[in-house]
Amino acid sequence: MTFWKKQTPPETKTISEPAPEIMPETIEPLENAPMLTSPEITVKEQVVDAARVDVEPPTINQATDCQIDIAQAQFEGKVIEAISTVFDPEIPVNIYELGLIYNIDINGMNDVGIDMTLTSPACPVAGTLPGDVERVVQTVEGIGSVTVELIWEPAWSPDRMSEAAKLELGFM
């Protein structure tokens, strides 16, 4: 017969010193993490600093601000090209070159707001010209909604015409 002797657990000790930190003997640098080369800074501090760096996750197919600006400029060019097909029936120059378009506002949904005027409040095409502008702009590929507002301030003057329009109409 075998008798087993009951063993008592060893006494527990309270440790007043902090545990030593365990560091691997070799630390591989983190990719793209800035590593400081100052001799006063330890490898441990470099790793801790590198871990604190905020790194944005890679984005896929995200357009840059520059690309967005170019796309908006190209889209605005298409809108201007469409507007340039509209002529005042009494003047052989398109309304864009005449300076009748005061503002073109395009939002992120490609909704277009156009402020335009006429050469005179008594212009016989005052009732139809804004509708013509709206209709041709709606044909631009990718367009959202189109709103054309007829405004009278500031009043139109020949100074608003492009150089080409002034030349065509003999103002130069």
Mean pLDDT: 78
CATH topology of the domain at 66-166: GMP Synthetase, Chain A, domain 3
Outline:
elongated
Helix and strand element order: HHEEHEH
What is Rg? 37 Å
CATH structural architecture of the domain at 66-166: 2-Layer Sandwich
Spatial order of the strands forming the largest sheet: 1-2-3
Any idea of the CATH class of the domain at 66-166?
Alpha Beta
Q: What is the share of helical residues?
A: 25-40%
Number of strands: 3
Verbal overview:
There is one protein chain. The chain is of the alpha+beta class and about 170 residues long. It has a domain at about 65-165: GMP Synthetase, Chain A, domain 3, CATH 3.30.300.130. The protein is about 25% helix and about 10% strand. It has helices at about 45-50, 65-85, 130-135, 165-170, and strands at about 100-105, 110-115, 145-150. The longest helix is centred in the middle third of the chain and has 19 residues, at about 65-85. The chain is elongated and about 60 Å long. About 15% of the residues are buried. The model is unreliable at about 1-5 (pLDDT under 50).
Topology, pairings included?
Blueprint lengths: L42 H10 L12 H19 L17 E6 L5 E5 L12 H9 L8 E5 L12 H6 L4
Parallel strand pairs: 2-3
Antiparallel strand pairs: 1-2
